[in-house]
Amino acid sequence: MLDITEAETLLPPIRKIALDAPPTVAMPSIDVDHGPRRHRTTTPGPERMTLEELTVAYSGKEAVKRVSLPIRQGEVLALIGPSGCGKTTLLRTLNRLTELTATASRSGRILLDGQDVDHLEITQLRRKVSMVFQQPNPFPMSIFDNVAYAIREQAMRRPGKKEIAPKVEDALRRAGLWDEVKDDLARPALRLSGGQQQRLCIARALAVRPEVMLMDEPCSALDPKSSAVIEELIVELKRDIAIVIVTHNLQQAHRVGDQVAFMYLGDLVEYGPTDDVFGAPRAQRTRDYVAGAFG
Ligand SMILES: Nc1ncnc2c1ncn2[C@@H]1O[C@H](COP(=O)(O)OP(=O)(O)OP(=O)(O)O)[C@@H](O)[C@H]1O
């Protein structure tokens, strides 16, 4: 069977559609091949987060405009759209990271399990809604301590190494890294490869048992093989947690996304099942974007 990265090289080039092409009246389905899915169907679980008319502005200029969306366990939501359309702003707002930007303001509601995130204690929110960044950012300490740190941070009392070790192992296993590191957990994390570092960051995020994982272009700094490993992992993890991923890579969004949200200039232009958004989008702008006409 073809490896996913090998298969990608065999795909036909993405067909270009002129931006000023007249709108298609009947909106026929799109014949662009976005490659195979890594999709493993799971029954959508409970709605973990709900966005209601979410608006985020920097110095009064809106970067995300009245976005309403559900984020469900058992699903990967892929946020796509051209540079500057508000994907990262939307993602970072979900665990209130945009509050660190002094010029940022927000309106609308974000619910986590039905509760307004503004009423949650911030560390509690960030434990339940964890984040994996574009650049792997392990701490300059051992592999073991990277994961143990996250567990100790959220524990009511300081657990000992004996108590923590099974939790570290569990998180490393879930992140698909255990077999590669189990014989040398004392090794400095910064000596791992980029792909291993990113899986360690995922293990660190998983160690606190989040309900939602936010991933901001988690593969963009990785080679294709490491990206494929992370994508497989994402598809595995969605059984237990809700995943939101920002990606510029349309084929990646197609491979891992169950739902896709296409944003343009802060607006949520289209949201729906991956096959619909990629195969038969409703809006002309979505059609142009997924067909590769701009980006
Ligand atoms: N800290 C900030 N201060 C002011 N404006 C910002 C800030 N961060 C983002 N913006 C602006 O908000 C808009 C949305 O940016 P954002 O980074 O969310 O988009 P994006 O879709 O994630 O882009 P990219 O794909 O390039 O990462 C852009 O116009 C951007 O210039």
TrEMBL record:
Gene3D superfamilies noted in UniProt: P-loop containing nucleotide triphosphate hydrolases
GO cellular component: membrane
GO molecular function term, any single one: phosphate transmembrane transporter activity
PROSITE patterns to which the protein is assigned, alphabetical: ABC_TRANSPORTER_1 (PS00211), ABC_TRANSPORTER_2 (PS50893)
UniProt entry keywords in alphabetical sequence: ATP-binding, Nucleotide-binding, Translocase, Transport
Any Gene Ontology biological process: phosphate ion transmembrane transport
Domain ABC transporter: 49-290
SUPFAM superfamilies, per database record: P-loop containing nucleoside triphosphate hydrolases (SSF52540)
SMART domains to which the protein is assigned, alphabetical: AAA
InterPro entries (UniProt xref): AAA+_ATPase, ABC_transporter-like_ATP-bd, ABC_transporter-like_CS, P-loop_NTPase, PstB-like
One Pfam assignment: ABC_tran
Name of the protein in question: Phosphate import ATP-binding protein PstB 3
Organism of provenance: Capillimicrobium parvum
Gene for this chain: pstB3
